[in-house]
Every structure is written in C-alpha cells, then in structure tokens.
C-alpha cells in the first residue's frame, strides 16, 4: 500500500481511500496503492464488497499530468482499471468534486457509482491533446450511449451530476458523509444479493443501429470546426472502435490511438498551455506574507459594453456590485443591457430564470459617487481619454474608503499617469478585461510603478474569483497582448498593400489555427478604434517606421467595419463577409503612395510575417520586464487572442520552429522591409547562446 491510498475494513466491506492532495491525481503511488488495495480486498475472504472514496476536495481529477513525457512507471492506469473491473466482489465509487479523466475512468471500472449532487464528471483529455487512455472511450459509450460519449470526449467538457444520472454514468445521488453513504450503498447491494456489474460487459448501447452514420457525421463536423487538430479525430476513432470491437480489442485500439496522441507535438503544446495558465497565477517577488484584501462589494464606473460586462463578472461571482453612470437614462441603458444579457442565457438554457434574478439582485444602479463609499474595489470603464479618467479618479480618491482598490480597465493609457490623479497611487491597479468581459477569460493585471504588493495580490485573487485567467503585466502602450497585436495587425495591412487580399490573409492565418483572421477581427472591433490608436501612435514612431495607409482610405470612405456594414469586407445579409469592391482601388492607391507595385504573396510569407511579428515584439516585452515569463505571453495569446492551444502560444511555437530559423527570417524581413523588423536583442542573445524561450 502506498501512503496515498489507505485500505481499511468496515465489517465485511473494504474501504479504499485515496489521499493525494491537491486533486488526487493518479500518480504512480496512487496507481500502485489502488492496485494493491483492490488485490488485497479480492484476496480477503472476509471482504464481500469494496467502497472507493477520495479525501480532500475532489474525487480523482485524472492522471498526473506532470508524468507525461517521462518514462512510464508501473502499474499503468489501464492495468489498475482492469483489476478493478474484473474483481469478483462488487465495488462502489463515491464521487464528489470533479471526477475527471483517469479519475472518471477508475469510477467507470467500478461496478457502481454514486455522487454528490454538485459533483461533475468528465473526460477532458482532448484539451491536453490526448484522449481517455484507460478505457473511457470504451466504457463511457456503454453507459451513456455513443452520441453523448462522443460529445463529452470530443469537447472535453464535464457534465453535472443530474445529467450524469440521466445518462447512467452515476446510479444515484448521495448527501452527507461520503464514507457513510458509500458503506450504506454497498450494504444495500449485498442485502439485495447484487454482485459485480461490469461496465465493459454492457454492450447494448454500442451495438445499436445507425451508429456508423452518427460517427461519420461527427467526424465531418469536427473536421470543419477543428481543422488541423489531431486528438479530436483520434477520440472519434477510439469511440468508433467501441462500436466495432469487443471490449478487449477496443481497449487495445484505444491504447494505440492514445500513444499516437501522446507522441503528437500538439500534446506537448497543450500540456504546456495547461501548466502555463497555472504558473501565470504566481507573481514573482511577491512577499509570502502579503495578505490580499477581502472583496465583499464592488462598483463599476461606466455602463457601456465593457462596464456592463465587468458588472456581470462580479454578479456571476456572487459579489454585490454598483453601477455608476452620469445620467438616469445612461444608467437604465446599462442595467437593461445587463438584464438582456442574462435573458439571452436563460433563453439558451445555460442559466435558470431564478439564477438570473438572483444575479440581477446583486446589481444596483447609482448616480452619485458618494454611494461608492463602502466598495472594496472600484473598476473604472469610461471613455479612453486621460482627461475623463482624471475626473473619475479624482472623484474616487475623494469618496472611496481607505484601502479600497481603485482599478482602471484602460487598454491603452498610462496607468502610472492615472494613479497619479489620486493621493493613493499604491491602491491603483489596472484590470484590463477583454470584450465581452463576461465571456473572455483573460484578465491582464497591470502593475503600476506604485501599485502595492497587497493590491496586486488582491487583484490576482479577485481575478481567480471572477474565473479569469489573470496575468500580471507592466505599464507600456498596449501592455502585452495589444502591444503584440499592433505588430500583427500592421503586418496584415502591409501585406494587403503589397498584394494580398483580406480573404487570403485571413484564410492563411485561420489555416495556421487562429480563431479568426486579423482583418475580420479588425472589422469586428471597429476600424475607427484601430484608426484612433494609430493616430495616437503616430507621434511616437521611430525613424524608418511607416504605417500602412489602407485604413485611412477606409475611414475616409466611412467604412468602419461591421458597424457600418463595410470595412475590409462588405457585410451582406446576416453579416456574411464578402469582398469590398472599393478596396482594390484603395490598395492600389496605398501601394502607389508607398512606391511599390502590388504582386502575389505566398501564404507562408503571410503566416511568418504576422506570427514572427508577434514573437519579435514578445521578445522585446520580456527584455523590458513587461511580462514576468515567456509562458505568461503564451497564456495571454491563448486566452485573449484566439491563438491555437495546440500550438502552445506564440513563444512555445517559436521554440518549436527553432529560434535560429525565426531570427533568420526576421533578419530577411528587416533587410527587405525596414525598421519594424529590427531583430529583438533578446532573440539574438538566445540564438547566440543556443537557448529557447522555455529556458528563460
Ligand atoms: N495532474 C497534475 N497536477 C494537477 C492536475 C493533474 N491532472 N490537475 C490539477 N493539478 C494541479 C495544478 O497544476 C495546480 O498545481 C493544482 O493542482 C490545483 O489545480 C489516462 C491521460 C481539477 C478542475 O485534465 O482541470 O487523466 O499550481 O489550480 O482551479 O485518460 O485542476 O497549485 O502547483 O487547476 O480548483 C485529465 C486537469 C488528465 C484535469 C481543479 N484531467 N485539472 O481546478 O485548481 S489526463 C485533467 C483541472 C488523463 C487518462 C488521461 C483542474 C481541476 P499548483 P488548479 P482548480
């Protein structure tokens, strides 16, 4: 027995307890302990049934991801799972928290499963570039049916206990003490004369008619929605094996497919992304004894799109929040927008009407700063003008209680200047939400020169409470994400002027894996926004740095993107993007102004120009200390800009290409295209030293 697994006798029932904080991951000691415990229970003539529980906050949350990529250590999880399912004494898994991945697979190999009503079960392996590798693709379809199993395995999204009950993944709900409930259920089994009920022997749901069509349809849908991704298609292959092969052969096929995923570079990228996100939560140099301030109530200044999105974040986290606006009708508009956003979720079935009312009850509207006196945190989300911010922060400084956290949602102004509008700059921090704030997970936490450790720690803790992926960034134009995306968008526009079309640029980058093409993104966020930022940047250009002019021509023609119906694209019925017939002439004019002749551009050049621009700027950002670590930059781009997780993020991707190759191309661009392509000194140093971003 290992110290991570305890075997006790409770009368004629063997009680197996897994205790491996923080999430009972199925590391080697847990696997060895489970195998030994079930083998001992099997061999003990006094034992007639087995109950499996986990200590701490959750049932096993999966294999130990830290072991991936290292030499495998016996026993393997399939070996453990097989011993559990083939035991001759009935076993009961008692599920609480999140039974995920290998954890759920262990539960599926038990003969019965009972769960707390607030538990969740899922097979999220696909999010790590893998597939369930311990029987999940063979056993889940046998309980929940092929269609539900495919949905769960290909999406990786867990289901809640009521749905798990509906789909036969759990047998009944339990309340109260896990062990007592497990023992009572096992005793009832024995009293009823029930023995093992092996999931692997329940074949009716994988032998139904029409499964081949169902699987073919799923394959086509996934190919369209997730082009280029390896493991989702392998997940479908594995579930298909469950419909074609007996369990034993299906398990062999599953293992083959699992190993193919394990060896895929996409798996390495996605596991990098998983740990990078958790690493980002750690702030270097923060004194260990710093205590975050408690946030019991919040306020948001400004009821526009961003402000209301932020209000919803607080309400969703159960934090009472006041929305301040300057007039009654502006305030009412904001509150109406909050209500209509929730109503849309209720209509979609993702939120109950009761929950909507509960959350709306947490939101109140105010017109006077005096009403903000008790707020623990105030987030300003007003118009991006330093003068407007000054007025807001001077009022906040005069009315908020000592110790209140004063946050700005600014995306482009200098947080240190904003902090200086107050007598308490140490309490000022940036909380850069991404639109729509109640949907996008990324939160850039901007650390000002004067921001105190306590306020920074409070902001990071608040971000976690708001279910955001919080990343600390420093003060500069665009912080990290936008500063890099400026370079990326600029290259996209230069490429248009050099000869590419918007459709070609966007198609090339979508084929790379970006969620949306850069020009479609610009049309969506509004060309007037891009133009305003560009006008602000123009005075700070360095010698030799020019700007594309196609945007000026579009703005001059009143073409602002989706909001005006035409931008880089023309938006017909239902906002489907079509070519903008006025654009070619504008591009010819822009090219003439730059003294170039437009000519065809290769897709590879498009991808390298846009993606390497991100990488070069990120290297400068790291060199200036604006981001704490290279993986933080990856987290920002994976969670705020639609960079494909299966490529790990811009800097993980740069390492995978090889920095020498990236630098060689950047030097060529610098030769041909000038100042924007000045190679980042850090990139040059890393290449000279034979190091990677991952080695920083
Ligand atoms: N392995 C190792 N460490 C893990 C881990 C795991 N599976 N899950 C979490 N951790 C660490 C995490 O790095 C962090 O560490 C701490 O636990 C708290 O995590 C064969 C092959 C369970 C929902 O994908 O989704 O099974 O930073 O901050 O927000 O088919 O963790 O504190 O040092 O995320 O409360 C499948 C991954 C694996 C689940 C809890 N399982 N984990 O969320 O805490 S593959 C997963 C999660 C597999 C089999 C296959 C979440 C959580 P540190 P946290 P949380």
TrEMBL record:
One Pfam family cited in the UniProt record for this chain: ECH_1
Keyword Cell division part of the UniProt annotation: no
Keywords annotated in UniProt: Fatty acid metabolism, Isomerase, Lipid degradation, Lipid metabolism, Lyase, Multifunctional enzyme, NAD, Oxidoreductase, Peroxisome
Single biological process term from Gene Ontology: fatty acid beta-oxidation
SUPFAM superfamilies to which the protein is assigned, alphabetical: 6-phosphogluconate dehydrogenase C-terminal domain-like, ClpP/crotonase, NAD(P)-binding Rossmann-fold domains
A GO term for molecular function: NAD+ binding
Domain 3-hydroxyacyl-CoA dehydrogenase NAD binding: 298-474
Major subcellular site: other
Residue span(s) of domain 3-hydroxyacyl-CoA dehydrogenase C-terminal: 478-571, 606-691
Pathway noted in the entry: Lipid metabolism; fatty acid beta-oxidation
Domain of life assignment: Bacteria
Catalysis: reaction(s): a (3S)-3-hydroxyacyl-CoA + NAD(+) = a 3-oxoacyl-CoA + NADH + H(+)
Alphabetical list of PANTHER family matching this protein: 3-HYDROXYACYL-COA DEHYDROGENASE-RELATED, 3-HYDROXYACYL-COA DEHYROGENASE
Homology family: Belongs to the enoyl-CoA hydratase/isomerase family. In the N-terminal section; belongs to the enoyl-CoA hydratase/isomerase family.
Name by which UniProt lists this protein: 3-hydroxyacyl-CoA dehydrogenase
Naturally occurring in which organism (per UniProt): Pseudomonas nicosulfuronedens
């Amino acid at each position: 027995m290992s110290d991570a697994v305890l075997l006790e006798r409770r009368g004629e029932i063997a009680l197996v307890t897994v205790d491996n904080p923080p999430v009972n991951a199925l590391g080697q000691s847990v696997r060895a302990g489970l195998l030994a415990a079930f083998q001992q229970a099997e061999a003990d003539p006094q034992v007639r049934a087995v109950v499996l529980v986990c200590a701490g906050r959750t049932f096993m949350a999966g294999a130990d991801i830290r072991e991936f990529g290292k030499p495998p250590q016996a026993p393997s999880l399939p070996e453990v799972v097989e011993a559990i399912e083939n035991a001759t004494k009935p076993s009961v898994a008692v599920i609480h928290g999140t039974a995920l991945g290998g954890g759920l697979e262990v539960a599926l190999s038990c003969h019965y499963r009972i769960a707390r009503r607030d538990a969740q079960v899922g097979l999220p392996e696909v999010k790590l570039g893998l597939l369930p590798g311990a029987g999940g693709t063979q056993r889940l379809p046998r309980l929940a049916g092929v269609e539900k199993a495919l949905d769960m395995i290909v999406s990786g999204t867990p289901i809640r206990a009521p749905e798990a009950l509906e789909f036969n993944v759990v047998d009944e709900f339990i309340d109260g003490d896990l062990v007592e409930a497990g023992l009572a259920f096992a005793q009832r089994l024995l009293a009823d004369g029930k023995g093992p009920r092996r999931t692997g022997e329940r074949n009716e749901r994988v032998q139904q008619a029409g499964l081949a069509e169902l699987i073919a349809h799923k394959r086509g849908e996934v190919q369209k929605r997730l082009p280029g991704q390896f493991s989702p298609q392998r997940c479908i292959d594995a579930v298909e094996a469950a419909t074609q092969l007996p369990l034993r052969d299906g398990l062999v096929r599953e293992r083959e497919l699992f190993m193919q995923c394990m060896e895929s570079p996409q798996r390495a990228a996605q596991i990098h992304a998983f740990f990078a996100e958790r690493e980002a939560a750690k702030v270097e140099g923060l004194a260990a004894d710093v205590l975050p301030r408690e946030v019991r109530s919040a306020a948001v200044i400004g009821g526009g799109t961003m402000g209301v999105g932020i209000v919803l974040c607080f309400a969703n986290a159960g934090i009472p929040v006041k929305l301040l606006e300057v007039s009654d009708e502006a305030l009412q508009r904001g509150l109406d927008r909050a209500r209509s956003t929730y109503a849309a979720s209720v209509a979609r079935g993702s939120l109950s009407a009761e929950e909507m009312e509960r959350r709306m009850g947490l939101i109140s509207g105010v017109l006077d700063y005096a009403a903000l006196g008790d707020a623990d945190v105030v987030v300003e989300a007003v118009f991006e003008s330093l003068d407007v911010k000054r007025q807001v922060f001077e009022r906040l400084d005069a009315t908020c209680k000592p110790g209140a956290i004063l946050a700005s949602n600014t995306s482009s102004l200098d947080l240190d200047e904003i902090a200086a509008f107050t007598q308490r700059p140490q309490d000022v921090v940036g909380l850069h939400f991404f639109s729509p704030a109640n949907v996008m997970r990324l939160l850039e936490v901007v650390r000002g020169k004067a921001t105190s450790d306590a306020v920074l720690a409070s902001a990071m803790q608040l971000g976690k409470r708001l279910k955001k992926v919080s990343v600390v960034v420093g003060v500069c134009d665009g912080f990290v994400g936008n500063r890099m995306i400026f370079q990326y968008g600029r290259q996209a526009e230069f490429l248009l002027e050099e000869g590419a079309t918007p459709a070609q640029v966007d198609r090339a980058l979508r084929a790379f894996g970006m969620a949306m093409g850069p020009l479609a993104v610009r049309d969506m966020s509004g060309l007037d926004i891009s133009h305003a930022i560009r006008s602000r940047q123009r005075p700070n250009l360095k010698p030799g740095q020019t700007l594309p002019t196609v945007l000026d021509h579009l703005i001059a023609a009143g073409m602002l993107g989706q909001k005006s119906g035409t931008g880089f694209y023309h938006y017909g019925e239902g906002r489907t993007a079509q070519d903008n017939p006025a654009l070619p002439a504008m591009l010819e004019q822009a090219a003439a102004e730059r003294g170039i002749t437009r000519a065809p551009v290769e897709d590879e050049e498009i991808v390298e120009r846009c993606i390497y621009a991100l990488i070069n700027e990120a290297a400068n950002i790291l060199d200036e200390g604006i981001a704490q670590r290279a993986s933080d930059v990856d987290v920002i781009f994976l969670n705020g800009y639609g960079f494909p997780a299966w490529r790990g993020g811009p800097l993980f991707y740069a390492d995978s290409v090889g920095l020498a190759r990236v630098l060689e191309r950047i030097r060529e661009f610098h030769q041909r295209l000038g100042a924007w392509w000045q190679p980042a000194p850090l990139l040059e140093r890393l290449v000279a030293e034979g190091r990677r971003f991952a080695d920083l």
